Amino acid sequence: MKDLLIGIDAGTSVIKSVAFTLDGEQLAESAIANTYRSTGNAGVEQDMLQTWQVTAQTLRQLHDKVTQLATRVAAIAVTGQGDGTWLIDKHGEPVTDAWLWLDGRAGSLVDSFRASDKDTLRYQQTGTGLAACQQGAQLMWMVEHAPELLESSAVACHCKDWLYYKLSGELVTDPSEGTFTFGDFRTRRYSELVIEQLGLQRWRHLLPPMHDGTQSAHPLSDMAARETGLLSGTPVVLGYVDVICTALGAGLYDPVSSVGCTIVGSTGMHMQLARTPEAVMMNQENTGFVMPLPVPGAYAQMQSNMASTLNIDWLLDVAVDLLGEFGVSRNRRELVSMIDQWMNQATAGDVLYQPYISEAGERGPFIDATARAGFTGLSTAHRFPDLVLAVVEGLAFAARDCYTAMGELPAEIRLTGGAARSDSLRSVFAAVLGASIRTSARSEAGAAGAAMMAAVCTGHYTNMDDCVAQWVEPLLGDAETANASLVERYQAIFPTYVSARRALRPVWRQHAKTHRRIG
């Protein structure tokens, strides 16, 4: 009996394969770490073959956790990290290591492009602000600095597209990533105008066809069947990009209410549902993203912080390193359990933190490859707990900054991501955003969103509305309301946060220029 779906979520650091029943119950999960490396020139790369091998291994491990897995799987769906460039040659092999969304090599090129008239024409089509992390910017950089990579390539795809190819032998992308960089979100097709503005007409042939996974699937190849232990011919569904699948699994698409959704993960994504193209709010700064949902006529309007929990990881790593200097062995995971305790020892709003820790700078609600993190307001009275609270507050202020750029703050926000399990973090986000917070009991929203697409594709549900009613709504927790005094305090502080990041922009640029000169 075909009573299971497998959702694959290939993140930057961890790849997960999750088994669900057709009605949305999560049965088992296999998760394996993946690695990436910094190249020293603002580049961040990942081994494509290793990424596939890790993915196949997670699928093999599921056999040990679910009885008769191979014969029970109705479909496999795959999503993964967005942005970046995964080049494949005519033989189906990697041309080079994948360039990730963390890659900042194209930063100065993007700055120049955004200062030209071309950027507005491109933005009006895509609804997406150009940033160094995107494939369009990375291909532009390659044209100038590494044309041999493009000459050797047959297809430029993304992480999930590469894995879909390894599973099915089909080279395609989906409408969310296809229109994100090169298309018109309204039509869900490539835009020749956008490709022309980016100066990539010669490389148009590298863009794969767009394929909607809710409409059709491709069979699991014999090779992939041997490597995963699953049955050849099992339908394989191409999910939308991870942020869309996560939003779907976490509850952004609500057939009745208009809500927001924030993902507090390695990166921070802040989304509002747009039920028509006309409902999308374009801004004068040409920032933010618009992506279609796997629902006819529905879109996610987004602003994204380049780094979210990466800021927390950095601070904990500093503590781990310092303890190690004194012979005390601790790891980041052990210190995570202390975060709520530390936050409760500190005074709200006492220290400001700008959470731009990524070497690629920031992309929402402003785009600046030179943006960097920093504390404001430190004194000799402050200790480590003050820094921890300031970092979490910085993530929440950055989220409010993003929502403000999209219009009115939502009255309700669905919060997801690993950090959403922290009581203190949810309390800070609710107070800074002035909204009620609901979190889902669903632990793997990204894999679930991909599996939901498979549930519709295979006909178990006639449409996504019916799927959401069973997969999402029963798992949403009660609304957590904000502490009124904290709301008032953070409302008073937020303008200072915005003023600080605006005032720091020339400082960041001067620092970057000096660093390049003396480096």
Short description:
The protein is α+β, with helices and mostly antiparallel strands and 519 residues long.
Could you please describe the fold and organization of this structure?
With about 525 residues, this protein is α+β, with helices and mostly antiparallel strands. The protein folds into 3 domains: about 180 residues, ATPase, nucleotide binding domain (Nucleotidyltransferase, domain 5, 2-Layer Sandwich), CATH 3.30.420; about 100 residues, ATPase, nucleotide binding domain (Nucleotidyltransferase, domain 5); about 150 residues, ATPase, nucleotide binding domain (Nucleotidyltransferase, domain 5). The protein is built from 19 helices and 21 strands. The strands form 6 sheets. Strands 3-2-1-6-13-12 form a 6-stranded mixed sheet, sandwiched between helices.
Tally of helical segments = 19
Count all strands and give the number: 21
What is the average per-residue confidence, as pLDDT, rounded to a whole number?
A: 91
Question: What percent of the residues sit in helical stretches (DSSP H or I)?
Answer: 40-55%
Largest sheet: 6 strands, mixed
Structural class: alpha+beta
Instruction: Please mark out the parts with pLDDT under 50 across 5 or more consecutive residues, or reply none.
Output: none
Specify the CATH architecture of the largest domain: 2-Layer Sandwich
Share of β-strand residues: 15-25%
CATH homology group of the largest domain:
ATPase, nucleotide binding domain
The span between the termini is 62 Å
Strand order of the largest sheet: 3-2-1-6-13-12
